[in-house]
């Protein structure tokens, strides 16, 4: 059964940290709900038990350029096109919001996925303290 992606769905502060933990990322509980208030918009999906199973967002200044961030799909729901649907929904919302350029950083192993979602691969760099 296809899970609908919803822009700015109602999310409790613990839900994204729970999903981050479920996919093997650090929880970063201190980031929520501030992240939801500061990003341009976010999207997600729930399973039949109303558990958050997909999440991602676009951040930025709300001008020409945005950043696609934290695409999370619960392990139980991978390989069901949910990630592709999530990214495409976020990109459609970016177009609607007149964000003309969306940048996303990812590891080489995820390059094909992002190309399939419509992103063009390019060189870039990342700084991390």
From TrEMBL:
Coiled coil: none annotated. It comes from the Bacteria. Residues 5-129 form the N-acetyltransferase domain. It holds the Pfam family Acetyltransf_1. InterPro entries: Acyl_CoA_acyltransferase (IPR016181), GNAT_dom (IPR000182). SUPFAM superfamilies: Acyl-CoA N-acyltransferases (Nat) (SSF55729). One of its GO terms (molecular function) is acyltransferase activity, transferring groups other than amino-acyl groups. This is N-acetyltransferase domain-containing protein. It comes from Paenibacillus nuruki.
